[in-house]
């Protein structure tokens, strides 16, 4: 069992996202993931004192945010540990590589002050099937989660996703396509329950 936490790339900075989810990854021993969303609705943007950017702008920022988060996650090499009691060296300085990236949407300079985890990096999920989402996912190391209304809808969404991934020059099998379930319940009389239990 794992924990999947949702956090918006529109209203959060890459450094905080990298720090929070890497800490969860270490504490949970790899059982925590990030559901990266771009957010929608002016009422959500109003919580942050902002106007909601356009969908292309939100996904443009999401793409750069995830790139920066990954760069921060790998700013510590896997062979970073020194743990030399004789010299007092805790970590190998040549295994820590600060980043310096900037652009239209986001920027970050420095290194993450959290060491690497033994399992690598947190898993990234995204729930969305629109054109901008598919274009972003095709170039992003994430898992796609969808909630289709029918089996045919699920097949169509999967085909569109695989096509977008191939156009981006990637192997569609590299990104997992996960289908959520829609549950419906209705009132059932005691008579049916009793009859069904015999």
Automatic annotation (TrEMBL):
Keywords of the record: Flavoprotein, FMN, Monooxygenase, Oxidoreductase
Keyword Oxidoreductase attributed: yes
Zinc as UniProt keyword: no
Alphabetized InterPro entries for the sequence: Diverse_substr_monoxygenases, Luciferase-like_dom, Luciferase-like_sf
Gene3D superfamilies (alphabetical): Luciferase-like domain
Residue ranges of coiled coil: none
GO molecular function per UniProt: monooxygenase activity; oxidoreductase activity, acting on paired donors, with incorporation or reduction of molecular oxygen
SUPFAM superfamilies given in the database record: Bacterial luciferase-like
Domain Luciferase-like, chain residue ranges per copy: 3-182
Protein name as catalogued: Luciferase-like domain-containing protein
UniProt source species: Massilia psychrophila
Lineage: Bacteria, Pseudomonadati, Pseudomonadota, Betaproteobacteria, Burkholderiales
């Amino acid at each position: 069992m794992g924990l999947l936490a949702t956090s918006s790339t529109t209203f959060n900075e890459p450094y905080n996202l990298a720090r929070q989810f890497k800490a969860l990854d270490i504490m949970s021993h790899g059982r925590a993931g990030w559901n990266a969303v771009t957010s929608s609705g002016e009422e959500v943007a109003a919580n942050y004192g902002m106007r909601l950017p356009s969908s292309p702008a939100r996904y443009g920022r999401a793409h750069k945010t995830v790139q920066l988060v990954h760069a921060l996650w790998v700013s510590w090499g896997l062979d970073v540990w020194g743990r030399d009691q004789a010299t007092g060296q805790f970590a190998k300085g040549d295994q820590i590589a600060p980043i310096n990236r900037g652009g239209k949407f986001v920027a970050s300079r420095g290194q993450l002050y959290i060491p690497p985890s033994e399992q690598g990096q947190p898993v990234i999920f995204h729930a969305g099937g629109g054109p901008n989402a598919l274009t972003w996912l095709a170039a992003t190391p994430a898992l796609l989660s969808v909630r289709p209304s029918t089996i045919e809808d699920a097949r169509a969404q999967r085909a569109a996703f695989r096509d977008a991934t191939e156009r981006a020059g990637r192997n569609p099998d590299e990104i997992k396509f996960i289908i959520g379930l829609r549950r419906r319940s209705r009132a059932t009389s005691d008579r049916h329950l009793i009859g069904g239990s015999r």
